C-alpha cells in the first residue's frame, strides 16, 4: 500500500527529482539537447547569412563534438543504466538518492564549462571539465557493483561499464587539451567519445533491449542476440577508434564493412518490418538501422580514400551521431519516461512525428557532406530541424521529471 506522505508524491521538488535515478539525468539531458544546440545553430547560420558568428576559444566543431559526446548523450545513458542495469542483473532497483552524488558534479561541471566559454576564461573551462570527470568517476563507482555482481551475467553490463571507463580517458584527454592546447589530445578526446564511448554503449543497449522489447510485444517472436555479433560491432568500434586517434581512420575500411554487414543483418534478423506494428518499438528498430548505414558509409569512405578519392566528409560520423545515437535516445528515453512515470507505454502522435522528424534531420545532415555544394545550407537546416524536434520533446518530458508518478506509485 502506497504511503500518501511519501516524498515521491507530496514531498519538496528536490525529493521528487531524486525519487528515481533516471529523473535528474534525463532532465539534464533534455535541457542539454536543446539549450546546448542554440549556439551551434547560431554558428551554422552565421556561415550562410550575414549573422555575426559567435566567438569560440577553439574550433567550433571541436566544442560541438565535446558537448555532444560528453555532455548530451551521457546524461541519458547514465539515467538509463542506473534504471535498467539492476534489472538486467535481477537486483533491486537503484534508489533515486544514489543519483545525487554523480549528478551534482556533472551538472556543476558543465555549468562551469559553459561559463568559461561565455567569459573566455580558460581556467574555468578546465575546472568545469575536471568536475565533469569527478562526476563521471562517481558514476563508475555507482555502477561497478551492479555490472560485476557475483554470479550474474556480465556481457552487457560489464561491457557498458568498460565503455564508460573509456569515456573517462576521453574526458581526461579533453581536459589536457583545455589546459595545454595540444591538438592531439583534442583528437583523442573526440575519437574516444565517438568510437570507444558512445558507439559501444548504444550498441550494447540495442543488442540487449531491442530483441527483449520485440519479444514482449510481437507475437511468435524469438529474441535473437548472438554474442558474436556484439563482439564484431564492439571490436570494430575499438579498432576504428584507434585508427582515428592515429589519424588513419580510412585504413579501417575492411573492419568497417564487416561491421556494416553485421549490423544490417541484425536489423533483418530482428524483423525490422514487423516492428511497425508498435510505434514505440519501431522507433528503436529505425534508430538501429542507422548504425549499419554509418558503418557502411565509413567503409566506403575508407575504400575510396585508398583509391585516391576523398569524399563523404563527416557523413559517417553524423549517420552515427544524429542517426543512431539521437534517434535511439529519443525512442528509448521516451519509453523509459512514460513507463516509469505511470503513463501508458505508447508513442502518441507527437512522439511518433518527432521521431520521424529526427530521422529527416539526420538524413539532411548526412546529405550535407554527401553533397558538398549544399553543405552550408543543409547543415544549417539540420541544426534548425534538431531544435524543432527537441524543443517540443523537452517541453513535454521535462515537467514529468519534476512531478510525482501519474499512477501514485513511488519512483
UniProtKB/TrEMBL annotation:
What transmembrane ranges does the database entry give? 25-42, 62-82, 127-147, 159-178, 184-205, 251-268, 280-300, 312-333, 373-395
Pfam families to which the protein is assigned, alphabetical: NnrS
Give the UniProt keywords, A-Z: Membrane, Transmembrane, Transmembrane helix
The yes or no answer to whether the keyword DNA damage is present is no
Q: Which InterPro entries match?
A: NnrS
Indicate yes or no for the key word Membrane: yes
What name appears for this protein in its UniProt entry?
Answer: NnrS family protein
Give the source species. Zoogloea dura
Classification of source organism? Bacteria, Pseudomonadati, Pseudomonadota, Betaproteobacteria, Rhodocyclales
